[in-house]
UniProtKB/TrEMBL annotation:
Pfam families reported in the protein's UniProt record: 7tm_4
UniProt lineage: Eukaryota, Metazoa, Chordata, Craniata, Vertebrata
Organism of provenance: Eleutherodactylus coqui
GO cellular component: plasma membrane
Record's bilayer topology term: Multi-pass membrane protein
Protein's name according to its UniProt entry: Olfactory receptor
G-protein coupled receptors family 1 profile domain mapped to chain residues: 41-230
Superkingdom of this protein's organism: Eukaryota
Coiled-coil spans in chain: none
Subcellular compartments: Cell membrane
GO molecular function: G protein-coupled receptor activity; olfactory receptor activity
Keywords attached to this entry: Cell membrane, G-protein coupled receptor, Membrane, Olfaction, Receptor, Sensory transduction, Transducer, Transmembrane, Transmembrane helix
Length: 230
């Protein structure tokens, strides 16, 4: 589509890996094995958590959620990557690319927060064992899961809805999937809104959960040391 002297992009070409056939076959075999193992391991864990009554606890509930996120995260990028490694046509539509980009952002953000929630769960279980079932009730676990999904959907997807991307530059993405920074390089006009959003959300997602995890385990260690010295 053309507007004046600008040509708007309808599809991208992913150029993240070498065009050498032997290298592509090697990479294809490697990623295929990794993907199959990821599917089998996470699928087995989810199945075990569902069918085993003794594993129907908050800890295994969140562990099952983590496995589900790993499945979704891998399935959102690796199948397309496998196809591209054995194909000379590495094209992807703009809509599919933005969908993949947002899916990676949402799932990655949820996984970071989920790890912090799992650390908090262990903190409550060890430091407040008598109140554990009350504090970490199934209602609380479900609400936490819903909040994680909604929060990450809002902060990851909303910017592209409020101010949609317009692409009119080169359509070659210097990556093997639709990574947000690689896509922003191809966007037209002022992209400062997206950059600010990425910095703010990225800082919160990458700093807050690890800090929360460290504090939780410091409290756990301190509680264990107090018990041993009592």
């Amino acid at each position: 589509m053309e507007d004046g002297n600008q040509t708007f992009i309808k599809e991208f070409i992913l150029i993240g890996f070498s065009q050498n056939l032997q290298i592509c076959i090697l990479l294809f075999s490697t990623f295929l094995i990794i993907y199959i193992l990821t599917i089998l391991e996470n699928g087995f864990l989810i199945f075990t958590v569902i069918v085993s009554p003794q594993m129907h606890t908050p800890m295994y509930y969140f562990l099952g959620n983590l496995s589900f996120l790993d499945l979704c995260f891998s399935s959102g990028t690796i199948p397309k990557l496998l196809i591209d490694l054995l194909s000379q046509n590495r094209r992807i539509s703009v809509i599919a690319c933005l969908t993949q980009m947002n899916a990676v952002l949402v799932l990655g953000g949820i996984e970071c927060i989920l790890l912090a929630v799992m650390a908090y769960d262990r903190y409550i279980a060890i430091c407040y064992p008598l109140n554990y079932t009350i504090i970490m009730s199934w209602r609380v676990c479900r609400n936490v899961t819903i909040i994680m999904w909604l929060t990450n959907l809002i902060f990851s997807v909303a910017p592209t809805i409020v101010k949609p991307f317009v692409f009119c530059k080169d359509n070659q993405v210097n990556h093997f999937f639709c990574e947000v920074l690689a896509i922003l390089e191809l966007a037209c006009g002022d992209i400062s809104f997206y950059k600010i959003t990425i910095v703010v959300v990225g800082l919160f997602t990458l700093i807050s959960p690890p800090t929360f995890i460290i504090v939780s385990y410091i409290c756990i260690i301190a509680s264990i040391l107090r018990i041993q010295s009592a």
